[in-house]
C-alpha cells in the first residue's frame, strides 16, 4: 500500500510540467521514509527469528553429539566388578557419585572409564591426569591399564572433543541418576542423563536421555548399579525417601517437601497437596478417588498422581506405604526427587507462522511452571499444547 502511494506520487510529479512543490517533495520523502522503516522492522524480526532458530539448531546438534557419545558408553556397560578397584563402592559395577556428576563403569571394550564434565574432573576417584580445561566440556577419563605382569600397558588419559565441535557452546550441567530404583516406571537398568549446554550468544538448552544398560538383565545385575547422586547413597536404595533422608520428610498437607530449580535457575518449592495418613485411612477402608495432580509424601518418597481420574483401594490395608500404592497402580503416579525436571516459559519459542510452541517437547512426567501455576504432563506434550490444555494442574501449589 505504501509502495503504491509512493509510486503514484512520483508518476504525478514526473508527468507534471509545473515541477515539484515543497509540499509534494516533503510528502514523497515522508512516504519513502515510512516504507524504509517498515521494511527495516520486518528485516529485524526475520533476522532475530533466524538467529533464534540457528541457536536452537546449534544447541540441539551439540547436545545430540555429546549425548550420543555418553549414551553409547553407558548402554554397553559391562557387569564386571573389576572396575571398582578405585571406586568408592566395591559392590558396584556402575557407580554414580559426586552429587550425580560422575558415572564410573567398564565400557564394552573392557576399559575402565569415568564420564563427567571437565569442571567436575576433581570428583573422579583415582584420577591421576592433572590436565585442566578452560571451557567446561565432556570428559571421559580412561584409567591406567596394566598387563598380566603388572606392567603399564596403557597410561591413564583424558578424552575430550575438539573445540570446533562445540559450536560456541559449553556444558553448563551434566548429571546422572538411576531413572527408577524401584523399577515401577522404568526398569532398574535405565540411567537418566540430563545435559544442559549454554552459549553467551544463544542462552541455554537442556536435553534428557534415558539409557538402558542392555547387559544388566537379572536382579543380581541390578544390585550392581549404585546411585549416590543424592550424596547420601539414596538414589540406588529403595524405601529411603526421595532424597535419601528417609522418613524425615513431612507428610502433612501444605508442608514443603521438595525444592526444584527451573530452566531459568529459579527455585520452586512444592508442597504436599493432602495429608498422607488421612488419604491412607480412606484408601485402606472403602477406597478413595485420588485427585489428579495431588502431591503425597511418606518415608518412601514424594509422588504426584498424574492419572486423569484414579480410584485406588488396598483391601484390608492398614500397613502400607506410598511405594506399595504405586506398585499396585502403575502408570498413575510419578516419583519426584532432586533429579526431576521443572521447566519454565523459556522453553517456548515464538513461531511466526504457528504461534507459541514448545521446543523441545516436554516428556511425560515433566513439571511445568506456567502462568503462575504448576502443572505435570500426563503424556508427552504436543508442540502447541500450552497449560492448562493437556496438562494436569498440581493441587494446592
Descriptive labels:
single chain; alpha+beta; 3 domains; six-stranded mixed sheet; four-stranded mixed sheet; 24 strands
Offer a quick outline of the entry.
By secondary structure, this protein is of the alpha+beta class. 22% of the residues lie in helices and 28% in strands.
Draw up the topology in text.
Layout: H1 2-15, H2 22-75, E1 94-97, E2 102-106, E3 112-117, E4 138-142, E5 145-146, E6 152-154, E7 157-159, E8 170-178, E9 190-199, E10 203-212, H3 219-222, E11 225-227, E12 256-261, E13 267-271, H4 276-283, E14 288-290, E15 295-298, E16 301-305, E17 310-312, H5 322-328, E18 333-336, E19 342-343, E20 348-351, E21 355-358, E22 367-370, E23 373-376, E24 392-393
Parallel strand pairs: 1-11, 19-22
Antiparallel strand pairs: 1-2, 2-3, 3-4, 4-7, 5-6, 8-9, 9-10, 12-13, 14-17, 15-16, 16-18, 20-21, 22-23, 23-24
Helix pairs in contact: 1-2
Spatial arrangement of strands, main beta sheet: 7-4-3-2-1-11
User: Rg from C-alpha positions?
Assistant: 28 Å
Number of domains: 3
- Distance, first to last CA: 52 Å
Beta-strand residue percentage: 25-35%
* Total number of helices: 5
Q: Provide the succession of SSEs.
A: HHEEEEEEEEEEHEEEHEEEEHEEEEEEE
> Residue ranges: pLDDT <50 for 5 or more in a row?
83-88, 231-247
Helix content: 10-25%
Shape: flat
User: Helix/strand-derived class?
Assistant: alpha+beta
- Sheet of most strands: 6 strands, mixed
How many strands appear in the DSSP assignment?
24
Q: What would the average pLDDT be, to the nearest integer? A: 79
Amino acid at each position: 500500500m505504501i509502495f503504491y502511494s509512493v509510486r503514484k506520487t512520483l508518476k504525478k510529479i514526473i508527468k507534471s510540467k509545473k515541477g515539484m512543490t515543497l509540499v509534494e517533495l516533503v510528502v514523497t520523502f515522508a512516504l519513502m521514509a515510512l516504507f524504509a522503516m517498515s521494511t527495516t522492522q520486518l528485516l529485524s524480526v526475520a533476522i532475530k527469528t533466524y538467529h533464534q532458530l540457528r541457536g536452537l539448531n546449534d544447541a540441539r546438534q551439540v547436545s545430540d553429539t555429546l549425548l550420543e557419545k555418553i549414551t553409547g558408553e553407558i548402554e554397553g556397560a559391562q557387569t564386571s566388578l573389576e572396575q571398582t578397584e578405585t571406586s568408592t563402592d566395591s559392590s558396584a559395577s556402575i557407580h554414580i557419585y559426586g552429587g550425580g556428576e560422575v558415572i564410573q563403569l567398564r565400557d564394552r571394550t573392557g576399559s575402565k572409564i569415568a564420564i563427567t564434565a571437565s569442571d567436575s574432573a576433581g570428583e573422579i576417584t583415582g584420577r591421576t591426569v592433572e590436565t585442566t580445561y578452560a571451557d567446561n566440556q565432556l570428559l571421559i577419563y580412561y584409567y591406567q591399564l596394566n598387563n598380566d605382569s603388572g606392567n603399564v600397558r596403557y597410561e591413564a588419559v583424558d578424552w575430550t572433543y575438539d573445540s570446533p565441535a562445540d559450536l560456541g557452546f559449553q556444558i553448563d550441567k551434566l548429571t546422572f541418576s538411576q531413572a527408577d530404583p524401584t523399577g515401577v516406571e522404568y526398569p532398574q537398568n535405565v540411567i537418566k542423563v540430563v545435559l544442559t549446554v549454554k552459549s553467551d550468544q544463544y542462552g541455554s538448552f537442556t536435553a534428557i536421555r534415558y539409557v538402558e544398560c542392555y547387559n544388566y538383565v537379572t536382579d543380581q545385575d541390578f544390585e550392581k548399579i549404585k546411585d549416590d547422586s543424592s550424596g547420601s547413597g539414596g538414589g540406588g536404595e529403595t524405601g529411603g525417601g526421595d532424597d535419601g533422608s528417609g522418613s524425615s520428610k513431612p507428610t502433612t498437607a501444605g508442608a514443603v517437601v521438595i525444592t526444584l530449580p527451573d530452566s531459568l535457575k529459579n527455585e520452586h518449592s512444592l508442597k504436599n497437596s493432602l495429608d498422607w495418613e488421612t488419604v491412607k485411612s480412606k484408601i485402606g477402608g472403602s477406597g478413595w478417588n485420588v485427585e489428579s495432580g495431588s502431591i503425597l509424601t511418606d518415608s518412601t518418597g514424594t509422588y504426584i498422581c498424574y492419572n486423569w481420574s484414579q480410584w485406588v483401594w488396598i483391601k484390608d490395608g492398614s500397613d502400607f506405604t506410598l511405594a506399595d500404592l504405586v506398585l499396585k497402580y502403575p502408570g498413575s503416579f510419578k516419583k519426584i526427587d532432586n533429579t526431576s525436571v521443572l521447566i519454565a516459559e523459556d522453553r517456548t519459542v515464538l513461531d511466526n507462522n504457528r504461534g507459541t510452541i514448545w521446543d523441545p517437547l516436554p516428556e511425560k512426567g515433566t513439571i511445568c511452571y506456567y502462568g503462575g501455576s504448576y502443572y505435570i504432563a500426563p503424556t508427552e506434550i504436543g508442540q502447541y499444547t500450552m497449560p492448562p490444555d493437556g496438562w494436569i494442574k498440581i493441587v494446592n501449589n
